[in-house]
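Researcher: I'm comparing several assemblies side by side, and this is the next one on my list. It has 914 residues spread over two chains. Same procedure as the others: predict the full complex and return the structure.
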Amino acid sequence: MVPILEMRGITKTFPGVKALDNVTLAVMPGEIHALVGENGAGKSTLMKVLSGVYPHGSYDGEILFEGQPARFQGIHDSEAKGIIIIHQELALVPLLSIAENIFLGNEITRHGMIDWPETFRRTGALLKKVGLNEAPQARIDSLGVGKQQLVEIAKALSKKVKLLILDEPTAALQENDSATLLNLLLEFKAQGITSILISHKLNEISRVADRLTVLRDGATVSGMERSDITEARIIHDMVGRDMANRYPHRAPEIGETLLTVNDWCVFHPVHPDRQVITNACLSVKRGEVVGIAGLMGAGRTEFAMSLFGRSWGQKISGAVTLGGKQVELMNVPQAIRAGLAYVTEDRKALGLILDESILRNTSMANLQGVSSGGVIDANRERKVAEDYREVLGTRTPSVFQKTVNLSGGNQQKVVLAKWLFTDPQVLILDEPTRGIDVGAKFEIYSIVNQLAGQGRGVILISSEMPELLGMCDRIYVMNKGTFVGELTKEEASQERIMEIIMSAETSWPEHAKAGSV
Amino acid sequence: MSGKSSVGAYLKNNMRQYGMLLALVAIMIFFQFMTDGTLMKPVNLTNLFLQNSYIVIMALGMLLVIVSGHIDLSVGSVVGFTGGLAAVLIVNQHWNPLLVAVVCLGTGALIGAAQGYWVAYWRIPSFIVTLAGMLVFRGATLWLLNGQSVGPFPKEFQLISTGFVPDLLPFIGTVFGMKQFNGIAFVLGVALAGGIIGLAVRARKRAATYGMVDEPFSFFVGKNGIIAVAIIYISFLLATYRGLPNVLITMAILIVAYMFVTNSTVVGRRIYAIGGNEKAAKLSGINTNRLVFLSFANMGLLAGLAGLIFAARLNTATPKAGVSFELDVIAAVFIGGASMSGGVGSIVGAVVGAFIMGVMNNGMSILGIGIDYQQVIKGLVLLAAVIFDVYNKSKSH
């Protein structure tokens, strides 16, 4: 069989860096081809070469699409051939409707005016194809991330797609939304559409991929057939070494209770009659890593943020003790002073000032610690930043580097540095490894273990169950804004957690819709 | 980072910082040449400071507002209003000028605070709040002055703007063999230059004890040497005319104070954090609302001061005073490298930006270029400066 796509000897250099070095990729018609590699391995660059973002002539090597040499000058050329990329960061206009988004730049017109009936009719048909039960007139910002992803796919389908490229489509999705999306890919495959799937989630790849190519440091390392694909092999090829254990070992030394939260209730910030958190109770001991599992919309982030100085929600009630004392956490400064730190799930939007240096981000939450009488000591500040860079192993040429230029893992280390410098008793880590490659994840896990080893308490919120199982001493299961189960490390398993969630789902039928995405 | 990095590479990395300063120097040399030396004549130099003082002073406050991610369009009207208030109270009501100055500064701060309140606590876009303020206070000025010019002011009030520091050291002139030479101006200039060098050396030494010196030594010497020579030269020129204008002292003290606040204090840093990413700043325990509120109140205070200086300079308050000042002030801040979206900008940049505009105004007027061309050229310079900035930024990525 002739490959639908062949990329041969692709080499792309940027000033000073060889981003791609003689990369080869062959994709067969009608298959789901997975492309994996650590962050910075060259996956995105390769896809930019393919789609014409880097035009023909700016790279070496050749591309054959359907047997014909392809020399794309821009995205328009590749889209005209039926190559459509869906980027990790969704490119939808939130204030426009689904239909307007799908046909944006490609509007259906009659005599120069938009033909709305036809637009809506075709949108309806496309939404049916992707299994999205929404009106074409619904606004994008009224949809969850999972549904938005489906709109992106519908948009791709509107362009008569032959090769669909999905760049980490499930990174922001919950397990059940991910499953929907992967099923859709399988359905497309049945219809003869070829896909390239870029993903960090190895379980998904082993589920749907027919073949797989591993990139490392800008070069093709290996290719695998479906029968050969195992997670262990993929990891081995990705990182270039065996990772016997994805979670570093820790001998927990658990002390007295550090944090207790009792009867925590929170209402929605915009809809005051909607209760989001109901009588949540939780405790964390010294040196303990406590996990919170749950589906998207279960209220985990809302719980954490409302606890952290009432940063989310209104009409908040409940009692908190920290270190044996009752504390009032009315605002963020109070929470920080009490010894709480919250590492957000969205480090770009809520965690970092991207245009500022590592140095300034590190000191941001504890400027008092580097100043006296309101005057910052520049040298002390720099020392602090350098120290944390060393302790956390942040890879950067200098602490004056802007954080926007760092990889996800290193950005996360800067956020951690910021919070460690406030010397917290309890750290809440919300999805700390989201969008981070395997190697950097291991480093973050090691840091978490060190923190626990220092006698701090850690609350770990994660959508990746293996991560919770691998890291936590105890796991709370959250559903519809309250804790519905608590499992020790020994009791916990993926099946057990899902069981608890499912039985909670069915026991509260009147809320059945409120928790869906 | 070692101290061995070359001067060229260092300059390239800090292009944004020094680019506008170099541009100012180039513009000054250009006009000095084109005007056959009139630009740097002591009398013109003195004028240059007097003419631009109120723009520079407001640029300091505007920088904070813009860095925090907002804008204040009302400052021109506030200048008119506070100037008018001063005239009504002093000329018509015969209040004590000192008391009036305090009242006017307080009024400016209050106006700024009122606008800041809506921006910070009600989240009304600052563009809209201050656009409203611009209309309201222009109208209020007209009402206050009854549509008439009110003046003149008593002598002591005029001193704010047109006074000079009395020469306490007249004998210095004899050293240079000059009859008319303001000793104190020259001595203060030399002292300032010495002070800057002293502080720079101390800072470098302290950084060295932490092993954190990035600036090449030759660059360090060159930079501070040029600054010191420039200050001494300017003070020498001023000394041969009437000495130091009072307003120059006010301006210099404010510039130094605001440089200190933005570079070295917790409050300054937090304002940058708010502009850089307000949500992240808030989650880092920064009281974002209060700081935005305060930056507007501060802006109002400085606009009040500018109103007093401008009224004193014209020796009369007119309903048209301060019209379109906000545009000059905002242009100065952006020419100085501030970002429209907040989080980026510097006091030095804003001051340099204000002087770029000022020198161009002054130089083009000396050359007899019509106001029509002047506007066009100033507009293009603003655009070019921002394009230069954006280009530099995109290159560094």
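Model: For your comparison table: Residues 175-190 of chain A form the longest helix (16 residues).
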